[in-house]
Write a sequence for this structure.
């Protein structure tokens, strides 16, 4: 097969390169870009589940697990290393994904979403109310960790965390794309189109969904650690239903057909919110809501869908 | 000839260099970024705070600005959430290169932004956030709190209570469940235990922040019948608590202490009855007994009422304090620099130990050891008065800042434990409405 | 916890449950018929409260008793206008598409309505408690209650419950709604206009949410963000009961209301945990909810 450079790959390379280079020119964008990348990693997990046609309305719980892993380490064990935060966060998130997943993969559609919502709200209420462990609604400060043993000045750290997030984002992106192209990924899509036939083939739909669920929990945990470190704080809001809604919003906005959608969606969402909070402080929710409705009504495959549709129209594919 | 002209040129260059080394060019404007709540429940503080800032900046610019330079304001909404807040803060400091920031209302926002301000080496005035721990945990160079913090605020209310109702036996607390609610109770109860150990706490209720309904809590308190009910709630939560308690007779059965209730007095109107003890997070009251006949004070209050429809509340005066502190620091730095425009570092140096006065209350001092503001505290009791459709404050006591603020270098809770019952014997002037 | 406190807790639980039921039953009804999870339900609740406040403040000087009809009118206006608009222009284009898209449309509507609410009614807390003040207080074991909360609200909830049940089972419109819920294709085949049924149902559900808000108004202060907590709470109740189950929602609302009240008396820290913990436990054992019935899987 002739190796053609897929337009999506080109777009991805351009996007990631821009993320790496732009903040060098506009330093105040470092935090914003890092946040976009970190959140997009979580949204990758949502996209994985959406392949199976399932929406989790509680994904914020894995995000919160990752964030609080970093926060608790700092609170109880002193300042640690970013690598260790990531390790702890991802392990805890994966384990909780396994435990919760064992329960939720028996359900589909609205019941899947509802049960996930329930679990995440239980976690949220514990984080909010167990004041003596979690500091309640104000959350726990996350001091700057060392990175692979090295300490950085505040300015330099912003760039370090940006490039760490970028690296992890690229890895996650490649991983998820490979996963979706793999047999497991195809089986996930089979759950959406016709689950019974999948079972007739001898595969357990539940196992397939569980694998996807655990992967998405893992990604959620990584994103949670990164955001907690970037922002320097972990709060119970990280596990609230509106945060889960935000992740789903971003997934649909970007487009669920391709892993790049997570990044496109996160970029648009965060950039709009960032500028709207500064310039139009009274209307950022309004703007985002209208954007989402417009996307759903007119571009249901999200921003990525718009791009692929136009390239297909040009006869590229 | 060549040598001479070269020497002249070098000399001139050196002279110019020497001159610029001591002076900055006077900027065309002083840019201030202010974080405040423009959405969410705390917008009851944030929106008046913004109106105050705009009004004060206009007045200031009419008089020529700070050191002859006009000020320009920009606002960041704390309500948009932590991510947007930190990103926007960095943007205004690094891209728009503001000269100073006023951040923030919420202690949560302050917790996030204070380290960032220190990192970015920009002057930040904590204009409204009350958590004492921020400046007790670490010494900052660029961050200053131009108001008191929860410790003197709670202590003043407690001493007022002990002076006016010395014989109460039981107390209950109903606070919002977040850092402010928890910390303010910790401060109050630690001091209470130290000064009146025989008091029994019959209930500690921490309803969720933003809870729309306190019915069950009110029922419980009606059943428990405490002598005193203490709350540091504010905004809609306080309104609901007071009104639901009033509807069911709890306000008559127990003495309510609204530690920061000054901001709700006008809004609640007659739903806030007489006889409640109310604190003001500083010596803030639009009928401040020491200032109420002062022309400038009256003019300011009237201008604010005309502009927004309501008399000022404490966030308004806190904003005035931040401006006053900024002007004071610049003026002091300019004078120290021989009349030339100071560098940022010189302004920071000037701010340490600065005493400033808005003219709307007693002067405030920025303690050089930890940049904590020393602000007097006013506490009173509600009483009806002709001419107002809400109950005003009467029997007001104004507490001197130094006596009731944690000494520098000590943690508040530790200091409070050392207080003795005779602490309340302090001499405090009382003012009638 | 002696028997006196238990009785007090029961009274508190019942009055809380009444409001929660009104909001949740609308959500449940909408899901049962349209199969859409209406995230904007909380905003409809908030708008009902805010409009009721505006109307109450306007009519109270004329006669405080007018505030009662004001509450009712506000609910109906919000239900019909907002509910109708949302269904007709925002949901109808996406029927037949994936459920997640329909849900996200309502999520977007929630964001928009939340923002507009701030722009229309501002950020200061608003209150209008005339309806509550008109009714006397009652004393139970030495504790004063407002009869608004312990008598009127439960009464309205019961009337709503009975009325809905009667409507759905014994009237023609109700039968039509049930038919469309049961089998849309067959119903359309015999000439029922499913589109109108959806519109009607959404409006009824929205009106119930707005009614919940209007009735909550006299007891509370209206602040920005009041819809957000109500949304997830009504989800919890509706999902635990079984989406689409009217009577079940009443039972579940009562259960959650009582549990919450008792917890506040015994261990107040766990108050917010209660609804979600119950939801998890119930859904793990009975995924369709306490009263949900399963549908045959279509292959």
């Amino acid at each position: 097969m002739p190796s053609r450079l897929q337009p999506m790959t080109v777009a991805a390379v351009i996007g990631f390169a821009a993320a790496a280079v732009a903040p060098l020119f506009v330093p105040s964008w470092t935090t914003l870009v890092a946040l976009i990348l970190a959140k997009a990693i979580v949204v990758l997990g949502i996209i994985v589940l959406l392949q199976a046609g399932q929406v989790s309305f509680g994904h914020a719980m894995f995000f919160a697990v990752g964030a609080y892993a970093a926060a608790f380490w700092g609170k109880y064990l002193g300042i640690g290393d970013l690598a260790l935060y990531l390790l702890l966060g991802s392990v805890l998130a994966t384990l909780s994904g396994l435990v919760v997943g064992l329960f939720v993969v028996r359900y589909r559609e609205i019941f899947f979403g509802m049960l996930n919502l329930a679990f995440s709200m239980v976690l949220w209420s514990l984080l909010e109310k167990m004041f003596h462990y979690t500091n309640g609604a104000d959350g726990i400060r996350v001091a700057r960790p060392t990175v692979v043993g090295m300490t950085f000045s505040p300015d330099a750290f912003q760039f370090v965390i940006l490039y760490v997030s970028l690296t992890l984002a690229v890895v996650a992106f490649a991983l998820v794309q490979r996963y979706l192209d793999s047999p497991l990924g195809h089986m996930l899509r089979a759950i959406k189109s016709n689950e019974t036939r999948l079972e007739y083939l001898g595969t357990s739909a539940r196992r397939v969904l569980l694998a996807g669920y655990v992967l998405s929990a893992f990604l959620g945990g990584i994103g949670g650690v990164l955001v907690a470190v970037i922002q320097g704080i972990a709060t119970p809001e990280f596990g609230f239903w509106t945060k889960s809604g935000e992740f789903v919003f971003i997934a649909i906005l970007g487009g669920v057909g391709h892993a790049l959608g997570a990044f496109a969606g996160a970029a648009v969402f965060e950039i709009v919110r960032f500028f709207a909070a500064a310039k139009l402080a009274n209307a950022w929710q309004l703007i985002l809501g209208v954007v989402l409705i417009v996307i759903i009504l007119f571009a249901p495959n999200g921003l990525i869908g718009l791009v692929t549709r136009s390239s297909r129209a040009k006869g590229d594919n | 000839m060549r040598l001479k002209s070269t020497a002249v040129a070098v000399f001139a260059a050196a002279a110019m260099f020497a001159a610029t080394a001591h002076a900055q060019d006077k900027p065309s404007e002083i840019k201030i970024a202010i974080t405040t709540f423009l959405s969410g429940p705390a917008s009851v503080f944030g929106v008046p705070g913004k109106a105050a800032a705009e009004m004060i900046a206009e007045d200031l610019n009419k008089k020529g600005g700070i050191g002859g330079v006009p000020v320009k304001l920009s606002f960041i909404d704390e309500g948009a959430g932590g991510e947007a807040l930190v990103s926007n803060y960095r943007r205004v400091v690094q891209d728009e290169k503001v000269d100073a920031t006023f951040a923030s209302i919420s202690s949560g926002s302050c917790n996030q932004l204070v380290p960032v301000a220190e990192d970015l080496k920009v002057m930040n005035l904590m204009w409204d956030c009350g958590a004492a721990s921020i400046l007790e945990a670490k010494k900052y160079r660029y961050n200053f709190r131009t108001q008191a913090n929860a410790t003197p605020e709670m202590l003043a209310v407690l001493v007022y209570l002990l002076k006016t109702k010395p014989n109460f036996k039981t107390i209950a607390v109903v606070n919002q469940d977040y850092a402010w609610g928890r910390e303010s109770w910790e401060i109050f109860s630690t001091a209470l235990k130290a000064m009146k150990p025989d008091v029994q706490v019959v209930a500690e209720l921490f309803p969720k922040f933003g809870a729309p309904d306190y019915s069950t809590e009110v029922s419980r308190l009606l059943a428990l019948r405490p002598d005193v009910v203490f709350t540091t709630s504010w905004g809609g939560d306080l309104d609901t608590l007071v009104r639901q308690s009033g509807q069911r007779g709890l306000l008559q059965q127990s003495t309510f202490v609204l530690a920061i209730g000054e901001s709700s007095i006008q809004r609640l109107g007659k739903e806030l009855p007489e006889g409640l003890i109310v604190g003001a997070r500083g010596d803030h009251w639009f009928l401040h007994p020491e200032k109420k006949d002062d022309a400038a004070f009256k003019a300011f209050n009237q201008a604010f009422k005309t502009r927004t429809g309501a008399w000022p509340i404490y966030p308004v005066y806190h904003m005035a304090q931040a401006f006053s502190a900024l002007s004071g620091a610049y003026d002091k730095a300019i004078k120290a620099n021989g009349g030339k425009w100071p560098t940022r570092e010189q302004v920071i140096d000037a701010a340490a130990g600065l005493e400033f006065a808005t003219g709307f209350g007693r002067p405030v001092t920025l303690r050089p050891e930890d940049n904590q503001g020393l602000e007097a505290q006013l506490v009173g009791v509600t009483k009806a008065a002709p001419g107002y459709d809400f109950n005003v404050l009467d029997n007001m006591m104004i507490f001197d800042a130094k006596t009731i603020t944690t000494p520098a270098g000590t943690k508040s809770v530790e200091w409070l434990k050392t207080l003795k019952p005779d602490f309340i014997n302090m001499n405090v002037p009382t003012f009638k409405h | 916890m002696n028997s006196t406190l238990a009785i007090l807790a029961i009274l508190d639980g019942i009055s809380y449950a009444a409001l929660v039921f009104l909001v949740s039953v609308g959500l449940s009804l909408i899901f049962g018929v349209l199969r859409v999870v209406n995230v904007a339900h909380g905003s409809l609740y908030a708008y009902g409260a805010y409009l009721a406040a505006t109307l109450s403040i306007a009519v109270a000087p004329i006669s405080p008793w007018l505030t009662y009809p004001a509450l009712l009118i506000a609910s109906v206006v919000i239900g019909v206008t907002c509910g109708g608009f949302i269904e007709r222009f925002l949901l109808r284009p996406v029927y037949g598409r994936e459920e997640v898209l329909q849900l996200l449309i309502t999520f977007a509507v929630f964001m928009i309505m939340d923002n507009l609410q701030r722009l229309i009614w501002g950020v200061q807390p608003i209150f209008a408690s005339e309806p509550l003040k008109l009714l006397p207080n009652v004393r139970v074991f030495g504790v004063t209650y407002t009869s608004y909360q312990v008598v009127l609200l439960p009464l309205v909830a019961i009337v709503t419950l009975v009325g809905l049940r009667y409507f759905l089972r014994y009237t023609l419109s109700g039968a039509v709604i049930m038919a469309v819920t049961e089998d849309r294709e067959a119903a359309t085949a015999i000439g029922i206009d499913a589109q109108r049924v959806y519109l009607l149902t959404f409006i009824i559900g929205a009106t119930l949410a707005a009614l919940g808000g209007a009735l909550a108004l006299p007891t509370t202060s209206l602040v920005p963000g009041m819809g957000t907590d109500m949304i997830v709470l009504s989800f919890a109740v509706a999902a635990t009961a079984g989406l689409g189950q009217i009577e079940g929602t009443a039972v579940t609302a009562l259960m959650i209301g009582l549990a919450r009240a008792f917890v506040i008396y015994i261990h107040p820290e766990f108050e917010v945990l209660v609804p979600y913990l119950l939801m998890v436990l119930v859904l793990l054992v009975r995924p369709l909810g306490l009263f949900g019935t399963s549908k045959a899987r279509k292959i």
Observations:
- The longest strand of chain A covers residues 140-141.
- The beta strands of chain A are 140-141, 233-234.
